[in-house]
Amino acid sequence: MLNDYELLNRIHKNTQMGLETLPLLSMRAEDTTFRDTIRKQITEYRDLNRKAERLMRDSGFEVQSVSPMAKMSATVMTNVKTLMDTSTSHLAEIVIQGSNMGVTQITRAMHRSRPGDASVRALADQLLRAEEKNIKALREFL
């Protein structure tokens, strides 16, 4: 079973990966509506990331960032996936894939966590709803 710290850490790392990769995809997008959608996601991830950090610090937990290797790997994979195709549809597909991974990871973490601080569970729910909303919004660009 996961404790509050581990669930918060998953939330923090999930949003951090989005904050690492979404700006790269936004820069490659020509469609301004798509870019605006990505910017909203970035803002949402930043807010959730800060809330997770604040809850960790308030609880006396150490804030752990995504490893530099994982960040580099995500950047390289994003660059490779967009090397030949920067169409809006393809960029939306990449973001949807990332959000689907986020949904899977946070859902699994929530199922494996024991009831603890209600605010931690609420933040995990908020991230899950955000990911699902983002996927729905991005389907319009496929």
Number of helices: 5
Tell me the distance between the termini: 38 Å
Q: Outline the low-pLDDT stretches.
A: none
Structural class category: mainly alpha
CATH architecture: Up-down Bundle
By CATH's scheme, which homologous superfamily applies? Ferritin, core subunit, four-helix bundle
Organism: Hominifimenecus microfluidus
Protein name: DUF2383 domain-containing protein
Features:
142 residues, mainly alpha, Ferritin
Describe the fold and architecture.
- The protein has 5 helices and no strands.
- The chain has helices at 4-28, 32-58, 68-81, 88-112, 118-139.
- The N and C termini lie far apart (38 Å).
- 80% of the residues lie in helices and 0% in strands.
- It is an all-alpha fold and 142 residues long.
- The chain has a single domain (4-139), classed as Ferritin (Up-down Bundle).
Topology diagram in text:
Blueprint: H1 4-28, H2 32-58, H3 68-81, H4 88-112, H5 118-139
